[in-house]
UniProtKB/TrEMBL annotation:
Coiled coil: none
Binding residues annotated for heme, in chain numbering: C441
Taxonomic lineage of the native organism: Eukaryota, Fungi, Dikarya, Ascomycota, Pezizomycotina
Gene Ontology biological-process entries: toxin biosynthetic process
Protein name: Cytochrome P450 monooxygenase
One Pfam family of this chain: p450
SUPFAM superfamilies on file: Cytochrome P450
Length: 497
């Protein structure tokens, strides 16, 4: 009698059974999310309540922030944008999620997968728990103090003067538009390179990107792709790409550059008025990997975001000539000579500050939410009891453009930040570009001073006119958490004083 074997039909049946079980599991999971999940009472599209796939799709395409704004317009100030994820649109939600908590009350911790899609990625001041965050922030505090800002002023001022010098060398009286995206990127990267790691990237000197700067944009896009894979549960694929396929090469290159620069900075010693000084004074309490991770965060947070806001401010001012005329008048009537414009003296330019705030509202450097999760035992947001582990956040772009919170939200109106009665009903506290609470951006004051200095120097030295090719600069821009900016072409005409 011949042996019995499992033939092709039997194998096919096993495969079909496996597929059927997989389909049944996913259908069951989707139905549970829809009808039995603790978040089932919150509104949102059916597909979003059933699966993370729709949210992942928009995130991958660079349009999730704008789509969340549409969802808020349809479903209200609390929207379920994933089976375990809620988006909030309320100034009070900032306080509930990110604000200081009463003694003994747990904070809403960082949702790690939204910051570190790979668990092997180092934790930095952005990711760590409350105790370690407090320790790291104390080490950084000196570098961001008012005393340190005075010591940093010659460093920052020298790069801004170099920017003006290089612009004058490259402009031909209103004939050839300059790509201000590049020049502003080069200036802010040179400044942060010096302030964070002791030496510039020489971008302004060479009128070109340092290889590291070129890597950073790719690193940001790759991180967004990694977060997208985590959304749909493709952790095995993510780990495979990171380990074998070279799919995360930008992350590795970024880390390599950071290590090299950090070693050079450590050789200079701790006595220097920069951000890393506090870390180096206590380097025995931190691993080299911790130093690398935090140095990387300083470079990213202090360069790309500042350049992005300045690009947005230049575009919005040049497309609103009456505002540009006002800020130009304020700057040129406040200073007789370029040398009078300093990191501290620009603090008196009220209208310029209003313009920067309005640019932050309309074109926030970070468009998405800074994800948190409900603590152990759950938490409360806007009076809603939020189950433990639920991902929550306030999305920057949607809340900055909500018509129920802002008068004419699509219009550029710096006057809304100057007490103009036309905008008396605006909720200025809805805008939190630097976040709020104990984990707000430690570099907020320095960022404002740097942005005001750069913009004041440019407006003092040049008349600005947007090139026709950049009239639709904002249209169809993608935002992978931060913006993927096209060229910003501006005609500059030197002004003699």
């Amino acid at each position: 009698m011949a042996p019995v074997t499992i033939g092709i039909p039997a194998t096919t049946n096993l495969i079909l059974i496996a597929i059927a079980l997989g389909v049944a599991y996913n259908i069951g999971y989707a139905l549970y999310n829809l009808f039995l999940h603790p978040l089932r009472k919150f509104p949102g599209p059916i597909s979003y309540r059933m699966s993370n796939a729709p949210r992942a799709y928009y995130n991958w395409r660079g349009g999730l922030s704008f789509h969340v704004a549409d969802l808020h317009a349809k479903y209200g100030n609390v929207v379920r944008i994933g089976p375990d994820t809620l988006a909030f649109l309320s100034p009070e939600a900032w306080k509930d999620i990110y604000g200081h908590k009463a003694h003994g009350k747990p904070e809403f911790p960082k949702h790690q997968a939204g910051y570190r899609p790979l668990e092997s990625m180092p934790k930095t001041i952005i990711h760590v728990d409350r105790e370690e965050h407090a320790f790291l922030r104390r080490q950084l505090a000196h570098g961001f103090s008012e005393r340190s800002m005075r010591g940093q002023e010659p460093i920052i001022g020298a790069y801004v003067d170099k920017l003006i010098e290089r612009l004058r060398e490259n402009v031909v009286a209103g004939k050839n538009p300059l790509n201000m995206r590049e020049w502003l990127n080069w200036a802010t990267f040179d400044i942060i390179g010096d302030l964070a790691l002791g030496s510039s990237f020489a971008c302004l000197e060479n009128s070109n990107y340092h290889p590291w700067v070129s890597v950073i944009t790719g690193f940001i896009v790759q991180t967004n792709f990694m977060i997208t894979l985590r959304m749909i549960g493709a952790t095995r694929l993510l780990k495979f790409l990171a380990k074998y396929a070279g799919g995360m090469s930008k992350r590795e290159e970024h880390t390599k550059f950071t290590k090299e620069k950090l070693k050079q900075r450590m050789e200079l010693g701790a006595e220097r008025p920069d951000f890393i000084e506090g870390f180096l004074r206590n380097k025995e309490q931190m691993s080299f990997g911790t130093l690398v991770g935090n140095a990387s965060t300083l470079i990213l947070a202090g360069s790309e975001t500042t350049a992005t806001l300045l690009c947005g401010a230049v575009y919005l001012l040049t497309t609103n000539p009456e505002c540009l005329e006002k800020v130009t008048q304020e700057v040129r009537s406040s200073f007789r000579e370029d040398s009078e414009i300093t990191l501290l003296s620009v603090g008196n330019l009220r209208y310029m500050l209003a313009c920067l705030n309005e640019a932050l509202r309309m074109y926030p450097p970070v468009t998405a939410a800074m994800p948190r999760q409900a603590p152990k035992g759950g938490g409360t947001v806007l009076g809603h009891l939020i189950p433990e582990g639920t991902q929550v956040g306030v999305w920057q772009w949607p809340i900055n453009h909500a018509p129920e919170l802002w008068t004419d939200p699509k219009g550029f109106h710096p006057e809304r930040f100057l007490g103009d009665p036309r905008f008396a009903n605006d909720r200025l506290d809805a805008m939190q570009p630097f976040s709020t609470g104990p984990r707000n951006c430690i570099g907020k004051n320095l960022a404002y001073a740097e942005m005001r200095l750069i913009l004041a120097k440019i407006v003092f030295n040049f008349d600005l006119r947007l090139a026709d090719e950049s009239r639709n600069w904002l249209k169809n821009q993608k935002a992978f958490n931060v913006w993927l900016k096209p060229a910003l072409l501006v005609h500059l005409t030197p002004v003699q004083h």
